[in-house]
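Supplementary Note 3. Input sequence used for the single-chain structure prediction.
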Amino acid sequence: MSKPFILVLYYSRHGSTEEMAKLIARGVEFSGYLDARLRCVPNVSSTAEAVDPEVPDTGAIFCDDSDLKDCAGLALGSPTRFGNMAAPLKYFIDNTSSLWVSGSLVDKPFSTFTSTSSLHGGQESTLLSMALPLIHHGMLFCGIPYTDTKLRDTESGGTPYGPSHWSGTGGNKKITSEEKALCIAQGQRLATIASKMLNGT
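The predicted structure, written as discrete structure tokens, is reproduced below.
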């Protein structure tokens, strides 16, 4: 039987959100409680035709319903698009009705993460917009508590709603040490909470 896992599901255009996903996955693994499973979603085509292979040539493989149904918890990430999640991730989430009907995600913890090109480009609204459909699924929102002092020290990304990164125009800003630490801490917290819920403690 495979070890329970946290699904780290993301869409990334220029690589910043993917890097955050890997850091969150590292935090999950650091916890020692659960495994991390990295998955991404394909682009969507405005001409409504299949344009991406089922298995990407590079990076994480595409998510399917079983990854979501079987996870013990979820970290969901997207770059910001006008204060909201990117269309490919929204398209994927919009097609999870069967999981909603079955209640497969009820009482599982989740967190959200994002990257923006401008410091005030909608990080918090994006994190909250990603949370809304997951709350409809009956999942439990796990942000970052202010007991994590890095949340008060950061001068770039990082919010109580989840990890964030200020990538700059064209993605020229590297993930800061505080942003990295908050991503790892979020992964650890999510795994710890999921483990307690699995074990009934």
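The two ends are 22 Å apart (CA to CA). The longest strand covers residues 73-81.
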